[in-house]
User: What shape does this take?
Amino acid sequence: MSDDFNTYSEPMLEMFMFETNQSMEQLEEILLNIEGNSTITDDDINEVFRIMHTIKGSSSMMMFNNISKITHSLEDLFYFIRENKIYDLDLTRLSDLVFSTIDFISFEISKIEKGKDPDGDESQLTSDIKDYLNSIKNDHPDQEIILSEDEEDHENFISKENLSQDSNEFIAKIFFEDDCKMENMRAFTLLRDLEEIISEVTHTPKDLFDDEEAADKIIEDGFNMLFRSQEDYDKILDLLEDGMFVESVDLEEVENEEEKSEEIKKTQVDLEEQKKKTLNETLKNPFSLNKNKNIISVNVEKMDMLMDLVGEIVITESMVTKNPEIQNLELENFDKAARQLRKLNNELQDIVMSIRMIQIGPTFHKMHRIVRDMNKQLDKNTRLEISGEETEVDKNIIDTLGEPLMHLIRNSLDHGIESTEDRIAKGKDEKGLVSLDAVNTGGDVIITIKDDGKGLNRDKLLEKATKNNLLTKSPEDMSDKEVFSLILLPGFSTKDDVTEYSGRGVGMDVVKKSIEKVGGNIQIESEKDVGTTINIKIPLTLAIIDGMKISVGDSIFTVPTNTIKESFKAKKEDLIKDTSGKEMILIREDVYPVVRLHEIFGLKSKKTSLLEGILVMVETEESNYCLFADEILGEQQVVVKPIPAYLMQYTVKDSGVAGCAILGNADISLILDISGIANKYI
Amino acid sequence: MKKVLIVDDAAFMRHTIKAMLTKNGFEIVGEAENGALGVERYKELSPDIVTMDITMPEKDGIEALKDIKKIDANASVLMVSAMGQEKLVKNSIIAGAKGFIVKPFKEDKLVEALNKL
Assistant: This one.
């Protein structure tokens, strides 16, 4: 990057990357549309052209020459297509070129993001694009003329009828500054500026528009003019020197007709006529872009800081209002103020949360590309169906979702969807279907990836798991769900099913890990020859939840309030045991299992009889059950902190703990993972 | 202080031009992301100078230039062009642009061009 830019480089670079990435997404969408409809519209051509043009401009400003070269060549291609209205295009080849360009640019941008120089070699792709352009040109030889037609027969220049007797003749030689670019157009601008006061103009180079070397000639020899004017020498000199980027002017008043420069030949054209002509060829703009006007983009880091700060405020608020030193005091006004503070804090949180929420749509739409590429490579015929794209999720979660989704989609296409022949043989629709859906269920977002492929094979999975020593139970005891979950274990994917796509050395365990990193979990359902459904459940936001504090022995646990149905003291007559001795409780004629927290966490508690403590009924998406604790301490908002890395190695995650929180008195409380406990202990 | 209106569809370019000009004592009174908005802003703000990108959605720079010239025949509009747009530059010059600058440009060139207006 040039030194010139260092002053602004940081925000410039960020904006450049942001805009370019956005444009790439837009471009990809257009391309997929073109492929989907198998036609290309004028709007598409214009839009691709415009995007390329914009990126070319921005990247050349940033001195990213490879990006600007490649966008330039694609811009040329679409320019030709647009100007000559060519519709019989080889869309596959065209979209392959554009897709390759998108990949190239995205890859370069990713290098820039990592602080490296974008040093990719664009020459191969550029020459491919040029080859294609040439092949179109050859197919449409007659149309090339159209390109230059409207610029034909402009002899340049200006004539003025009001030639006065006492006008003088001048010769001028003008050089423009280095690097001011388009010297021919600079010269043209000068001519226009002088239009009022000069007449009978001739100049070299004589052709400023169609002569491709005009600019170079001006750089080399200057712009030479011969003209008449009634103005005096000084005024003309001033005007010329005042021209934009004019470096030097050599102006001479000609005394004698014979001294006219030989090299200047006469050509004339009426500027007025030229004006009319060019005005008629005004460019139409059929773009229709709905841009939101009142939106600002904010650095995510700032948003994270704001979020953390709000988290701290919530903790501090409870440190103040739940302070042990004032616990037993009657403080009417204090309580009132504390309630007000609480209310405002809640609003603050809501707003900060809502700022961070973005729609999942764009993440979903990126998958179109994966499906397209995989279809091509694996010679399969699959379509992707997307729903629930307006569902909003926290920005951080969205960022983590891309990779796992991509992996799951790849898996579906690679291992799930059968080949066209197999599908026909099975009597299925020959076109495979992968669908992506997102729903907001209140506290969580559930993302479903569903395919109508061959489904997971229980026996094969078990066989493989046995071979890799991954089984902890005997196969007969395992439910289908447990068997399917085997594929999530590290070390399950073996070398022999690594293909170009699903392979890449990452298994489903990596998918699971990234989902868990954002507090989510993953569930697999599958039916032979019907397909596989993968449900990913993710909390809507990571940071702050309403929690109910319950005590067990000396420990305080937090139960997310939105999972609690009710809490009650058990009555002796309602307690029952099932045949295997598990404790159950009968409530309104339904039976619910009881989970003793002190038992599952190995804690010492004085209240070991179900009649002494309290039962809290919680719900998961599958069933309800009761947690047994000593007592309920009260409600409190808590900021969810992840489980520290050194604890993660002891499978804390699987033991029923979702995270930790700091309480008002600076104690640490573990947040219970309600569905995790259900999966493990019921 | 000269009041400048920046019209460009790329936020990156607006930002770049703004940074360059602010540093050199121009006052950026407004920005617009397409030609149609540019004309609106011109009416509202009556800036001393407009920098006008040529290729934009909604209404391109040349159309916007013509509209602005209709409002104020003396308007100082500097076109911002890319390499290879000679024809469009020509049309803008005929339509009354005071000058043009070609991307990529350096700060001194931009400032010099604006000072000439």
In short: Chain B touches chain A through 47 residues (CB under 8 Å). The first helix of chain B runs from residue 11 to 23. Chain B has five helices and five strands. Helices of chain B lie at 11-23, 35-45, 61-71, 86-95, 107-116.
